[in-house]
Amino acid sequence: MRAAKQYLTYVSAGPFQHAVAEALRLPDTYFTRLRDDLRAKRDLLADGLTRAGFEVFRPQGTYFVTTGIRPLGERDGVAFCRALPGRCGLVTIPHAVFYDHREQGAPLVRFAFCKRTEVLQDAVKRLAGL
């Protein structure tokens, strides 16, 4: 418990301190299952995006798979994201909105994989039709 108290001093916001304290009480198996589940979902989506023709940057520590759209003949991520719902019923986030120099992020978009496996399987099928 001493380590938990020591760790809590590094967390700045009050509500986070309570959340961290609760998380530290969970068994290691909880985190192992969470890690394995998210890794499987990441791989499912990343593999599907690769098959659909995207340039895929497989992440190590986020809920998003960043992709390049140039292999699809696209250059403008914002336009691509606006058109995607009509093309296959999916949404994604353009990276340009995170850049000071938007043109640097223009050919990149990201997809979230923190979803139910069935949702990701359906998304992969829809993306195959691009």
TrEMBL record:
Keywords associated with the record: Aminotransferase, Pyridoxal phosphate, Transferase
Pfam families for the chain: Aminotran_1_2
Source taxon at top rank: Bacteria
Keyword Disulfide bond: no
Cofactor list: pyridoxal 5'-phosphate
Domain Aminotransferase class I/classII large: 10-126
InterPro entries with a match to the protein in the record: Aminotransferase_I/II_large, Kynurenine-oxoglutarate_AT, PyrdxlP-dep_Trfase, PyrdxlP-dep_Trfase_major, PyrdxlP-dep_Trfase_small
Entry annotated with the keyword Zinc: no
Family annotation (SUPFAM superfamilies): PLP-dependent transferases
Protein name per UniProt: Aminotransferase class I/classII large domain-containing protein
Originating species: Streptomyces gobitricini
